Amino acid sequence: MISLIPYLVAELHALGVPKPKTWGGFWDIFGERLVDLLNVQEGERVFDIGTGGGSVLYPLTRRVGSSGQVIGVELCDHCAKATNAEIQRCKISNAEVYFMDARQAEFEDGSFDCITAGFIGWDDYFDFQKLEYKKPDDLMEAIRRLVKPNGRFGLSTWLKQEDLDWMYDFLTSHSIESKRNYTIESEEGWNIILSEHGFRTIRALKESVTYSYKSVDFWWKEMMDYDWVVNGENGKVISDSLKQEAYNAIQRCLTKEGEVPFRRDALIVTSILQD
Ligand SMILES: C[S@@+](CC[C@H](N)C(=O)[O-])C[C@H]1O[C@@H](n2cnc3c(N)ncnc32)[C@H](O)[C@@H]1O
């Protein structure tokens, strides 16, 4: 069934209700998809781990409505403050973000109907190549404790980020020892993690989004926010002449509007806690 919510939201914004600012682009598209696939219902209480710019949290607030509640948690103080400020500015009354590690969340057992985790990354805990744990998973233990029996947990994770691959290939082709900056997680790995923690009805769906950086300058600025260089500061190694080479190399990829298009592929996984 096609959701009417994005159309109703567009109508509300046209009527002057402020639209919360997020990180935009692919974050918002994947955030909406995660909330859709988790089938969040009016009146539910939801815990959103790693709220960031709110791309999962805002669709959740619209779904649960005034009788529901969304609690977000963030390890980044600045992100929590910025998203709380947006919540206030847009007069969203059913959400709040705490500067808190989800593993230390002091809510009672079974406090939430649903838990979401958008692009948190599980590679610290789990080796998705060897399909085995590296260390005990205290984050998944916290999730299992906080969700009600028969409650749902949904997550999104990157499969491919063409923009980061482009920069990685460019830097390594110039003999700069670089980090790839993301780990590809897999459906097989997630089946193991979730079933070991008592979740069933595990469903995984691959989704792709084509995204354009509005200009070459904007693309470069976004790329330079990543910590590429293995042993040293980006600024010292990624010189102006290298930047010029990157600008020349990207020209052949541009759209006729001068935008820089890339594709991002994600895996969205939903599951239900065994009663
Ligand atoms: C890549 S961002 C994604 C933001 C948002 N979920 C989305 O999908 O647009 C992941 C965020 O998770 C936060 N995070 C990671 N582990 C966390 C934890 N244990 N508790 C709270 N926040 C966490 C990070 O600080 C980061 O801002």
Describe the structure.
The protein has 275 residues and is α/β, with parallel strands linked by helices. The chain is 36% helix and 26% strand. The protein has a domain at 24-163 and 180-212 and 264-273: Vaccinia Virus protein VP39 (Rossmann fold, 3-Layer(aba) Sandwich). The protein has helices spanning 5-14, 25-37, 57-64, 77-89, 138-146, 162-173, 187-196, 216-224, 234-237, 240-250; strands spanning 45-49, 69-74, 95-99, 112-118, 126-127, 132-133, 147-161, 199-213, 260-273. The strands form two sheets. Strands 3-2-1-4-7-9-8 form a seven-stranded mixed β-sheet. A two-stranded antiparallel sheet has the order 5-6. Helix 4 links the parallel strand 2 (69-74) and strand 3. The longest helix is centred in the N-terminal third of the chain and has 13 residues, at 25-37. It is globular. The mean pLDDT is 93.
Q: What's the CATH H-level superfamily name of the domain at 24-163 and 180-212 and 264-273?
A: Vaccinia Virus protein VP39
According to DSSP, the number of beta strands is 9
Number of helices: 10
What Rg do the Cα atoms give? 20 Å
CATH architecture of the domain at 24-163 and 180-212 and 264-273: 3-Layer(aba) Sandwich
Distance between the termini: 28 Å
Share in β-strands: 25-35%
Shape category: globular
Name of the CATH first level of the domain at 24-163 and 180-212 and 264-273? Alpha Beta
Low-confidence parts, pLDDT < 50 over ≥5 residues?
none
Mean pLDDT: 93
Cofactors and ligands present? S-adenosylmethionine
CATH topology of the domain at 24-163 and 180-212 and 264-273: Rossmann fold
Compressed to H and E, one letter per element, the order equals HHEHEHEEEEHEHHEHHHE
Helix and strand content put the structural class at alpha/beta
Task: Please state how the strands of the largest beta sheet are arranged side by side.
Answer: 3-2-1-4-7-9-8
Biggest sheet, open or closed, and with what strands and sense? 7 strands, mixed
